[in-house]
Write the structure tokens for this entry.
Amino acid sequence: MDAMADKIENALKADLRAIRTAVGALPQIQTRSPIDLVEQGTRMIDCFENWLLDDEQTQILSMQPRHMFILFAAAYLGDIGLTDGNRPVGADDRELIYTRSAELIRADWHNLGIADANLADIIARVCLLSRSDDGSKPAGVSTDGAVPNVRLLAACLQLARALDLKATATIAHIYQHLPQKGRFAPHELIDFFSVTNVGPHPYLNATIQLKILCSDPEVHRALKHHERSVQRALEHMNQQVRPRFLYSDVIYEIEPEGYTPIDLKFSVDSSAGLQLFMGNRLYADKRVFLRELIQNAVDACNYRRLIDQSYSPAISIEFSDDISVIKMRDNGVGMTRQWIEKYFLAIGISFYQSNEIRDINRDSRIDFGFISQFGIGFLSSFLVAEKIVIKTRKTGFAGLAITIRGLRDYFDVRKLAEDFPVGTEVTLYLKESKIKYCRSLEFSGYLKTNIRFLKIPVTLRDERGNTTTIGREQLAYETAKSAGPVFLAALNFEDSEGYVRLGAKNLGDHIHALETSSGGVSVFQDGIFVTQMDSLLPEGARSHVVSRINLMGQDKCELSMDRNRMFWTADQHQHIKKVIRHGLVDVANLLMAAARIQDVPKNTVDSIVNNLAIFFDFSDVDDVMYDQLCEPLRKKVKKRFRDFVRISFSQKQRAGGTVEADGYNEAWQRAVLQSFVKRKEVN
Ligand code: ADP
Ligand code: MG
């Protein structure tokens, strides 16, 4: 049981004893039931040692015995602020306790059994940081250079104290939630309830359970309020602290004695919640699980690449010959048992939303971004599968095979053979009724449209054993469909990529007209399809031009939960439209150049020019576009603007207004406006 304390060296153990003795000798507050800080500290240490910290956290803390020592010392010293003022703690004083504790530790360290001022300072900081007992107050101080885990230590302390319903500070907090404060004094609160058990919940995963007997309805409600604030604090800590806690929920199971409690509040039924996120109503297309599994595989590969740059990622999908089984494999990071509990099983929690990962996502030096977001993607597999087997192994850990037969069922977990390769393999056994629908062709079609820009190629083996590779596509486009030449122009983004395509129809051996096609703009993000939009193209181009864009890095956009809609900011939208307009200039010039080489008859050229000119609305043509447009098109655009100016100005003049036009600030537009004004003046 003393596994953690054993890690503390003997010298430090003696120091810890000295601290305990010093705390025991401190003057106590004069109340009916004196506070025993030594006993409180011992309870907290029990909690650290027995269940609160998971293996990963324990391992990290015990790599540095001093950290463990600091945590234990802080458990004894954290509330010594209480002994200073010699008066009972009220709600207003709660903040003060920790400030006072920190002051006392720093000033009085030699009398408190602490070896030196430096150590005292770190202990004081941990105590101070542990002060916030409702999640609303962030533990603001950033991580400490010398002791990197100050934040983790403070979080442990804070959580252990909050869950210790006998701790004086906790009692003060609970007391605060009583509607009538005068009924009894804070220290009398413990006469109304007793905690019969605290620890991991026996059957709810990642949940802390407190079993409480309570004899008063108001106290019951105050305890429920406290439960909620601990829950908030825990959520907050898990966003801030690494490694995060194994727990994501706290439940106070309160058994009422002699009253009927009213516990009304909004709640989510967990199996209904699972159904909701599983996606029957979330996703329109049942094949969406393919995209979700591939996203997970890509993220896992990219995450491994962060750690090991020389590694080469691989993803594959295999269909069984009767298409009743689909197997997806990646050689990414893989998962450990704890990882599975923390991230894979926790619905709505995604590893890829943690702060450090978000920073990586924004780092423009890295050529990928993590795709995952909402922590629900995997559930979509249950739309089609009746059984799912996940085999996964992380470097340096034992591999695991997990069999899931249904959302509500417990999983079957086995160890894998030693030689299972690092990575994850997900096997879906499709539901009977879906098999007809699930032809592999339909799947591969879906994949081709959805992941064609993916940087990591996906190898697909169909039911007949044929293998194809999808992804890594850049500016390729099937030209076969077109009756004439096809012109492609790359789009010029900082972080993203894309192209516009314009086809021509031939008559005999020369270009005769523009091809009609209406695909709009297909927008991808991180290589995966999101939506198709016409509105990104100028109206005049919509029936001839097709475009594909893959947003990455800075250009990335907020997505809806089903990943089918984009929430652009006005700036993003403007920027993308502008890049596309520049691409249209290139593609129109290419077509015109081809026509010139082919010596296309003049009246055909004229009609093509007329068609192309409507791609360019003169109010959107900036100077760069204007200069780049080939001569005949530029003339057309300029003429249309001149006509516009002439008509609208003569109207204005007739109405007695001044000659000016708003919003035409490009140099070429101003030149047209000026020549018009001059001509008017001459007249
Ligand atoms: P999200 O992808 O939004 O996080 P998911 O439900 O798809 O939500 O996955 C939950 C978590 O499970 C991921 O955050 C990731 O940590 C883990 N995970 C899922 N698939 C894999 C995989 N193939 N390899 C490694 N980890 C995975
Ligand atoms: Mg996912």
About this structure: The longest strand covers residues 497-507. The chain has 20 helices and 19 strands. Residues 636-682 form one domain. The chain has four domains: 3-185+230-242, 278-470, 479-615, 636-682.
